[in-house]
Design a protein that fits this description.
homodimer; 358 residues; alpha/beta; Isopropylmalate Dehydrogenase; Rossmann fold; ten-stranded mixed beta sheet; two-stranded antiparallel ribbon; 12 helices; binds magnesium ion
Chain lengths: 358, 358
């Protein structure tokens, strides 16, 4: 198969982790006989420095011309004070929009070998933790109109945002989540607040309707406040979760954190177009940039997600995940997940090791 | 002092736990020489059965005529199918509104003796956990207008809610939270999503302004998704949290759950009027109603909050809390918090024991 990948290294540790992920990607392609073409473009701070915008048109064009995009991380203190409209994060929002990426897939998986890293007690974790949060990414209250500030009849200031979803927006994300759940544990929780919010009532009606096409998937609804509790109390009850933009932001971050190993977590942003975007959930970590302490595994696992979701290459994706598990089982770690008695590798050593064991 | 208390036992285990809380309240009043007058009124399912409404006018009148309201719990399967407009929970929303209770105080405290109950690892809990979440209760997206459903120009249905706050609403809740923080650990986190939401930007501006009058309180802002993570990662960093209605719903429930002992947690709803409402955060537990398995300690601790917040009777409130700690230290438990080697008491035995040790 031909794989045309656009790589966006970004800022901070972005280039270092991307370099190792590419080493692994090249090795996988070689092993399975795929033809890999790599292109590279700028996003975030580096793009601001070079072009005074976090998302140059050339970057959008290169992404649109590719089959999939692999991103590192963006931002850093250097760009914290610049004008809001050209902040590094705008680059990420912009590319999501340009590619129509309406779904954010956020797996929160606790690797057996890293169970000690979880903040939850062993008795709570039980057999492990393997949750996929499917978050709606370009609708809801983060983008809803009208929004802004006003002054009421008493001369008092107020500010407001609109949480809004239309049927088609709910339908496509819920449908996608059912498809994903079907490939995983066949269980889906739709997280909402329908006892209070009109927008959640519509969400539930649409989700209920979609669920009729997936009678093989165990479908549940759950209020968002209850979900925030259940993730702490009994995370093992969840397989796949689907929810709106704001609730998904909160719930996916909470789910990630209970694993205790943020440096291990990849993500995918996908849409109806052919080009999806894959990136680790951790940030650009300017404090450890250039020290070799960065953990490339989340980016390597993002490559695995890319092979699975953009190219349907499940065997290749499985091999990467199995190799990461093996490397962990053999006692290799990076600084962020280091434990007594294990061997601490640098970013490039870890990348090379995973590639060599594929 | 004269204490005129209106008691609302409600449904399920409500009457059982209220009975024990009243035993303790009577004992405290006797000990400190306060004159206690008790009145009782109906709310929730019992009120629906008797008057076909979850909140009869007589209940509102009695509450308004009192100095403070002590509530048990409401709801149960018996009333799950009835018309939405007269569901038991409407009684609670109604009485909050009638009393102008704009602030919900939700302590999440891990009792030393119950550390094992927490779902978090000992290393995460460290010295313990004592967080007060101050949630705005009658504004924000749960009440914001406009709300509802519509059909767009393409004939597609959509639904929407409005998250809105005006300056005065933010000011009063943030001011109250600063006052509470000052009496506790002098640290306040204002939880919002100002990097995305206009309403949070106004919230922050107002909170920043109020903070100038409280330079003795260590003031921080934090995004709600980060807060959901930090509660799991390092809950010890929090003392007092203030936030809006929706964020507070999620964050206060998550904070409660990490203690692992929902049956121990009281709450207060207060406003600018003189009458506040105090209740345990757990529900009406119809499954154990009448079995004697209910834990009355959250309601007893709600009495403690009532004495502190409605009457400024700190010594009396402290005595109740110290006595609960003592009873736990001596190895007495109820079914929900039972551990090996401890003595399990019934609801009425626990109430009588606390009262006898005051
Ligand atoms: Mg987030
Ligand atoms: Mg709640």
């Amino acid at each position: 198969m031909d794989l045309n990948i656009c790589v966006l290294p970004g800022d901070g540790i972005g280039p270092e982790i991307i370099e190792q992920a590419v080493v692994v990607l090249e090795k996988v392609c070689e092993k399975f006989g795929h033809k890999l073409s790599l292109d590279e473009a700028q996003i975030g701070g580096v793009a601001i420095d070079a072009h005074n915008t976090p998302l140059p048109q050339a970057t959008i064009d290169k992404c649109l011309a590719s089959d999939a995009v692999l991103m590192g991380a963006i931002g850093g203190p250097k760009w914290d004070k610049i004008d809001k409209s050209i902040r590094p994060e705008r680059g990420l929002l912009g590319i999501r929009k340009a590619l129509g990426l309406y779904a954010n897939l956020r797996p929160a998986k606790l690797w057996d070998e890293l169970k000690d890293a979880s903040f939850l007690k062993d008795s709570v974790i039980g057999d492990g933790l393997d949750i996929m949060v499917v978050r709606e990414l370009i609708g809801g209250i983060y983008f809803g109109e009208p929004r802004g500030e006003g002054v009421d009849e008493n001369g008092e200031r107020y500010a407001y945002n609109t949480m809004v979803y239309k049927e088609s927006e709910v339908k496509r994300i819920v449908k996608l989540a059912f498809e994903i759940a079907r490939k995983r544990g066949s269980k889906l929780h739709s997280v909402e607040k329908a006892n209070v919010l009109d927008v959640s009532q519509l969400w539930n009606e649409v989700a209920e309707e979609v669920s009729k096409d997936y009678s093989d998937v165990d479908y549940h609804t759950m209020y968002v406040d209850n979900c925030a509790m259940q993730l702490v109390r009994n995370p093992g009850q969840f397989d796949t979760i689907v929810t709106g933009n704001l609730f998904g932001d909160i719930i996916s971050d909470e789910a990630s954190m209970i694993t205790g190993s943020i440096g291990m977590l990849p993500s995918a942003s996908i849409g109806d177009g052919k080009v999806s975007l894959f990136e680790p959930i951790h940030g650009s970590a300017p404090d450890i940039t250039g020290t070799g302490k960065a953990n490339p595994l989340a980016t390597i696992l993002s490559v695995s997600m890319m092979l699975r979701y953009s190219f349907d290459l499940d065997a290749e994706a499985d091999l990467i995940e199995a190799t990461v598990a093996k490397v962990l089982a053999e006692g290799y770690r990076t600084a962020d997940i280091m434990e007594d008695g294990k061997e601490c590798l640098s970013c490039s050593e870890m990348g090379a090791l995973v590639a060599s064991k594929l």
